[in-house]
Structure formats: structure tokens, C-alpha cells
Amino acid sequence: MSISSSTNLRRSPISATLERRLEAVEHTRVNNVSFEQTKEKIRKMLEKVELSVSAYDTSWVAMVPSPSSQNAPLFPQCLNWLLENQHEDGSWGLDHPSCKKDMLSSTLACILALKKWGTGERQISKGLQFIELHSASVTDETIEKPAGFDIVFPGMVEYARDLNLVVPLGSEVVDAMIQKRDLDLRRESFSRGREAYLVYVLEGTRKIQDWDLVGKYQKKNGSLFDSPAATAAAFTQFRNDGCLRYLSSLFQNFEAAVPTVYPFDQYARLSVIDTLESLGIDRDFKNEIRRALDETYRCWLRGDEEIRLDLATCALAFRLLLSHGYDVSYDPLKPFAEESGFSNTLEGYLKNTVSVLELFKAAQSYPHDSALKKQCLWTKHYLEMELSNSPITSVRDQYLKREVEDALSFPHYASLERLDHRRKLLRGSCVEKNTRVMKTSYCFPNVCSSDILKLAVEDFNFCQSIHGEEMKRLDRWIVENRLQELKFARQKLAYCYFSGAATLFSPELSDARISWAKGGVLTTVIDDFFDVGASKEEMESLIHLVEKWDLNCVPEYCSEKVEIIFSVLRDTILETGEKAFIYQGRSVTNHIVKIWLDLLKSMLREAEWSSEKSTPSLEDYVENAYVSFALGPIVLPATYLIGPPMSEETVGSPEYNQLYKLMSTMGRLLNDIQGFKRESAQGKLNSVSLHMVHDQDNGSEEEIIECIKGLAERKRVELQKLVLEEKGSVVPRECKEAFLKMSKVLNLFYRKDDGFTSQDLMSVVKSVMYEPVTLQDESLT
Q1: Could you say which of 1.10.3720.10, 3.50.30.30, 1.10.10.10, 1.10.600.10 is the CATH number of the domain covering 482-769?
Q2: pTM for the whole thing?
Q3: Where is the Terpene synthase metal-binding domain (predicted)?
């Protein structure tokens, strides 16, 4: 729903001015030719992600002899490609600053292919000169190594000897490499993961003579690990029909050169979707993303090996499909609930951090499954160890380290979208994500990370300009309604607006953000009113005015404070009701009145407990406190303004009310834990102090706090499960997400203290609200 279509016929003069400004900005944005061209390029990425060709793998395919003649190549087009695609410096391979060993490996493989078929003397000579010039890189441990380099490179040097070709590395270097390789191959310890690894680097070992061992790892498409190089080596050695079928199929999609892994479409496309979502620009590509995920889901249901047999792809597909409401089972990931399951895979043997990171993210996305809880624990520990022990040998390593740090420092349940977007934008995170290394480097040529980054920066700043206008409007609203005159009340507009803008950030959610922020401001004022600013008479008077809700007569106020609060409360309820009518097609004002009335009555009950110095049971306290925590007037009215219609039956359903109760109970418990000492000193009730009073086991303060932390965590997990549940759900997913977004706000706010007394959080608020993002890398501007 656009801003204009969702706000017609009911704007105040201030709101209408804001609307005109936003429409002008949006008009400029939409009509920016470059902007639209960038979006079109990204749409094409989602339709078909291209994979770079690999000189290394192409050379091994080129070495495959024809079944009809051992003296002729089966795929001569690959040989011709090698002849035509040598770099000026004599090398082959993806030219990247951190890929020296990869280029050496690719160059040697290409030289072997040319030498085998007795062609390309000039190219061979130039290639050998490149290897000699960069020979020091072979033994430089500070340079990133492709997977299997220590096995494959010495193996190729030996193969060169068989072809009477001298590789200019020096005899000491060659002997040391081969000795190290042989020691590694003779190691007695032999796991399933190591066995898979030796088959994966089959082209470098030439030692495995047992097809039964190799065949265990052959996929339905005939390949070994979707690796053209390994499959070419297997066919050359074993003449397996499945291997030949796979190699031949490559040229249905590639003319003369092959990639280092194929197929890889699913992971590539899912990575683009994940990048768009992580930068907050996925809403411009909803249709394309839905089509891509529909295809992924069909593959998931069929059990396609491209998804099921690749850990990173399987975990990423699970996470994205789950978050988009598809009915997916965790079963394919169950073997990796324990670290031992991961260790027995190729990825585990290679210590593939990307796969572990994806498993960790997948486990966080569905925490109520016991197997996923185990997976979350071991992957977290694994990633922590990787951070402390793994050396950084490339820019990609630095990028991956930052990704791991973010995943550990900003857990899924306490991560606000706009903070994540800003952090990734400032780092230019998606740029290095485009180049990866397996046996050799590869990239997605048509996935232009700089285009994605530029679009995301422009979008972030565009949304930020809207948020700035809304904040000005809210500042005026506070002054016009005299809220600043209530000296007892905390002024927390920035926090209140930020909590909505950091999650409901897109332009079309303006009404929901405004309602969210006003609800936050007013609940803070009313909380302080009942806490320190009102007499019993004033409390009861305010409740009576809301309960009566007579708009046809002039209210009688017992004090100026009550007049100020009721007046702004009445106007805000009516304004929200008016807006909601446009979205819902029915009046919801009475429900909004009830939400506020429930809050006021719960606050009065707490005030009475305090004044009478009575001690309620823990059950009575929690039953009242989840309402008095005051999230109802913030979140519930906003759900009417998000877009999807909700019937009276929907908002009265057990599901809707359980979403509210779980969110609020979790928030109340987190608040009580952090505010326990301060509130105890003030003589206020708190679940921690009440637990101490009623605890029959005489547990210590630390034990009781841990118990309540566990209860809060269980409520969070239940809430996440309910939001993700699709079967039998009557609440629209977009509306359910609002409860989950608020739970993330709460987990962030209460990680250190009670949120409203946090100083460092204010700098975060300012950065998201007022500081535009600029591209740091000049090459992207």
C-alpha cells in the first residue's frame, strides 16, 4: 500500500504537508533512471545468477581423453578455451589480490592440459615464467590456500614430471611439498570426513583405485561433489558412465569453459535474497523473491541433492523458507544437531566456517526444537573458537570474521533490522561476499555487489529522511498537546519512535510507526502518572473518563494533569481509529479504547498494591503485570495499520491474545530482572522480589534471577514459534511479525539495563535516525 493510497481523506494539515513532501521525494526517487536501471539489474540477478568459469576445472575437463581414442581430448572446446584465455602475465584463473596460490594452481593445471595434448608451447612457456616469478607464494603460509591445495598442487607437480615437464619451483621446495603431502596421506586417523576429502581432491591424489569407495560420493547427477575437476579425474580413471553423463551435461549450459562447482544456482540465488534482506531492500523485489523461493520450496519437497547435500545451501534454504512462511521440516539438518555429524562431512573436514555460520543462523531461527538448540550451542562454540584461533589471510577472511562477530554479538532475538542494515552498509559487507574460494576462486559475474550496495545506501537515506520528518511532526504533537508541561513524566520520544522505526522502517508503514511512537510516549507518561505523578482521585478520574468515553459532552476534570492526559489520549485514540478504518474497512475505535482501559486498570491495581503494602501471589502479579507493562497500546493498534485486514474474530482469537501475552510477559520479566535492585530500593513490587518472598526452597538471589531469565527465554521461544506457525493461524503473518519485532526491541533494550536509563543506546538511536550512510569505498561511488 502506497503512502498516498493509505492516507487519503483523513490527514490533518500537518500530515498532509508531510505527505506532499514524501510524495515529492518518492517521485524523484522513482524517476531516477539510474535507480530504476539498478533495480532492473537486480531483478535479472534473481531470475538467473551466473557463475564464473574456472580455468582450473576447465583444464581437468580438457585432460579427459576420448573413449574412442586416448590420443585425443573428449572436450576439445575446453582446450581451445585455455589457449585463448591466458592472462597477459602468463597466468590463468580469477585475478584477485588474495588469490596467488589459486592462480598458481590454475596456471599449472592449464599448463598440464596443454602439455598433455602437445599444443600451446608459447602459452606453456609464459605460464611457467609466471610460476617461477611467483614461486615464493607456494610456501607462503600467510596467503590464502584453496581447498586441497596441499594435496592437489604437489600431485600436479608429479604429473608434470610424468609429462617430462619441469616446474620451476626448486627441488627443495618440491621435495618438501611432496613429503608433506605423503605424510598427510599416510596418516592413520581416518574419518568419514577425511575419506570424503580425499575423493573431493581425487585429481590431486591419483592414489585411490577403489571405485566402490569413490562411488559412495557420486551424486544422482553423476558428479563427485558437483566438482567438474574431481568428476573428470574419476572418469579418466574409472570410465564411469555417470561421470561422463555429468561432464557432458556441463556443455548444455556452458560453451567451452566450466565452473568450479555445478549446479550452484540455488545457493547463489538464495545468497542474493539473503543479501537484499540483510540490507533492507527486499521489498522492491517481492515478486521475484517469491518466485525464487517457490522454486526452492519445490526442490526442498523433492529432496533435490543440490539443496539437501550441501550444508550451507540446506541451512540457508531452511532459514529463508521458514521466515517466509513455507512449511519446512528440520529433518534434513538433524544429522548436524551434534558437532560429530558435521565433522563427518567434507565441509567439516575442510573446517568450512561459512557452513557452520549458516547452521548457527538456521538454529537461531527455530529455537524451540531440541535438536536445533543443540545445534545452536555447538555452532556458537565452534564460531567462537574460529574467531580466536583462525588467522586472517585475505580480505574475504576479514569479511567472514565480521560476519561471525555480528552473528555472535547480535543474536537473532535481539537484532533490530535497521541497526543491522546500517552496520552492513558502513562495512560494505556484500562486496566481498561476491568472491569465494573452494578448490579455486569463483564469483557471480552478474551479481554486481556495488549496485546492490548503492541501492541500499540510497534507500536507507531515503527512509531516514522520512523518519526525520515524522520525528518533527511528533515533536510538534508533544508541544501542541502540552505533554512537556507534565514535569513528572519522562520525555522518551526518541526511544519510542526508534523502537518502531528500527523495525517498521519502510515508507508505507508510516501510519503504523506514528501510532507505535505515540503509544510509547503516552504509556510512558501514564506510567509515570500512576507511579509518581497522581493522587488516587486523579487515577480513578482518568479511568472513569476513558470508561465513560462520552464524546458528546464536555468532560469534567479533577486536575490539569488529568485534562492534559485525557485530551491527548482521546485525540490519539480517535486519530488511530480513523486511520485504521481506512485499512480495515470497519471501526476498531472501541477495541483501542478497551486496550487503553485495560492498561489503566492494571496500573491502578499496582498502585493500590503499593499504597496498601500488600503482597500479591506471583501468579496474580504476572497476570496483571503483563498488561501494566504497557505494550498493548503500542503494538496492538499498530497491527491495524500494517496493511492486512483483521476481523473482530481475529483480534479476539486465542492466537492474537497469546501473541500479546507472550510478548508482554517476556518483556515484563526482562524489565524486572534489570530493574530489581532499583525498584526494591523504591519499595516497588517486582517478580524477582515476589519470587523471593514466596520461594519455598529459599533460593539465592542469583538462582531466582536465573530462574526468571529461563522463564523469559521460554516465553520468547514460544512467541517465535507462534509467529512462525502457519497451520491453523488466523492472524496475518505481517501482523504477527509486529509482536516479534517488539520482542527484539525488548531483548536489545534490556541486555544491559532497563532501556530508559541506557546512555550508549542513545548513540545508536541517533546514528539510525539522523546520520546518513555514505559509501566508504571510492570504487563504488
Answers
A1: 1.10.600.10
A2: 0.88
A3: 482-716
